Structures are given as structure tokens and as C-alpha cells.
Amino acid sequence: MKKLLIFFLISLLFSGCEWLSSSRRPEKIDFECAEVSLSSSFDFYNKAKDYFQSYYKTRKESELFFAWYASEDSIYMGQSVKRCFDKKNKHFHAVRNLFRKNLILQKLIVQNMRQDSQAYLSEIYLDEYRDIFMRDIQ
Predict the structure, then answer these.
(1) Confidence (pTM)
(2) Which residues span the domain enclosing 78?
(3) Burial category of 112 from C-beta neighbours within 10 Å (exposed 0-12, middle 13-18, buried 19 and up)
């Protein structure tokens, strides 16, 4: 009887350890965090360029605002690369290059706005945009 009880306790101990170790393992680990963030950042930058090009075709000022917001989303996604655990030097240089491109694009957007106050308004709308649509960027 004692042998059966000891066998039962040992098996219970091993099954408990197995259950604890399996519950602590993450289900799915994303090994390409930096690559995905960088890719979506470049996609937002390309959208911003497309909106800016369509502004020259249509001369609608709303296209400038769309280009500005897409550029800001690109910068935000580029900044999220630093939170990734798999970042490398190539990601750092790509993000730095992307920031420079977005800075130039934003300067062009501001130059094409009719008044300086409208650039200020877009900054106000951007703050409200982030408050309302916090998860929209992802």
C-alpha cells in the first residue's frame, strides 16, 4: 500500500511540474517583430507619397492632410522598432533613413499648405487622432 501511495504522489508531482512548465511557455513568439514594423512603416511612407502625388493631380488640400497623417503613422511605426527584441544594426539604419525621408516629405507638405496656421491645425488634429484611434496605427 505504501509503494502504491508513493508511486501516486511521484506521478502527481511530475504531472504538476509538466502542467506548470507548459502553462508558462508562450503560445506563439513573433520572431520578426522588427521586420514587420519596418515593413508597415515603409508602407505608410509609400501611402504618404501617393497622397502627396495625388495632391499635385487634384489640388485637394485633404490629400495633404492624408499624406501628413500617413507620414506620422510611418514615424510611429518606425519608433516601435526600438521596442522589438530582434532589432539589429540594419534596422537602426533603415529607421534612421526612413525618418529622414519622412522629415523631407513633411517639409514639402507644409510648404504646399495655403497658410501656416493650417500646419498648426494638422498638429492639433494629429493629437486628437492619436487620442481617439490609439490602435488604428497598428
Answers:
(1) 0.62
(2) 29-132
(3) middle
